[in-house]
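Notes to self after the Tuesday call (sharing in case useful).
The group wants a holo model before anyone commits to mutagenesis around the pocket. I volunteered. Ligand is 2-phosphoglycolic acid. Logging inputs and output together so the record is complete.
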Amino acid sequence: MAENGKGAPKALVAGNWKMNGTKASLKEIRLLSGMLKGVRLKCDVMVCPPATLLGKVNDLVKSSRISTGGQDCHAAPSGAHTGDISAAMMGDAGASAVIVGHSERRADHGESNADVKAKAEAAHRAGLTAIICIGETLEERKAGAALRVVSGQLKGSLPAKATGDNTVIAYEPVWAIGTGLTPTPQEIAAVHKHIRKRLGVLVGEKHGEAMRILYGGSVKPGNAAELMAIDNVDGALVGGASLKAADFIGIIKAYS
Ligand code: PGA
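Result:
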């Protein structure tokens, strides 16, 4: 995690349940809080359930070390936006963070960098941490454009006032999400180093050093330790393997 002996930010392991989970899934939260009791945690643990479960999950995690986040928010605080949810509403339901700009939102809902930035700013106004996702497609990687794509997304999506306290970056190569494929440790190290450098330019070195850069895309209990040992990887954004407490705890333990 730490590079050149510099203090790295505390790791964050965040689970993104995506459009999965009903009341029956709350048992996984109960199991996870139980499993965490015996663990000497060195990372922060977060679960981002669907909005329908956010309040219920928060009731369950009150006395545990699990925090919660939303998966997306509207850029406005309230208003005539049928079906949308604001960052303030997520906060009201107990969330301390919200994921913005996930590649599935960018692809399914045509969200641009400007949209993502507006959502991140809305998260900040509501007192939430914005987890801003960026990452290249397979075509872009094959074309040798991964660093350029990530730079563009970072520049376009990151609010100027982002700090290590209010913002987390998640590097998620689109082709690694839900596929079982991951970049090599060298490839991840190169992108994370690049992101760290760009952050220094965009928000200043102090905030850039303090900002967590998560890796996401097919993180599993079996590869978590190897991924977390990579320089400038300050945690993981986990999809499929966060749905079952038995898998998620394996990843958390690799960071603890
Ligand atoms: P995955 O998803 O872990 O299932 O690959 C990661 C994500 O999309 O955040």
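Two things stood out.
The pocket of 2-phosphoglycolic acid is lined by residues 16, 172, 177-178, 216-219, 237-241 (CB under 6 Å).
Residues 2-6 have pLDDT under 50 and may be disordered.
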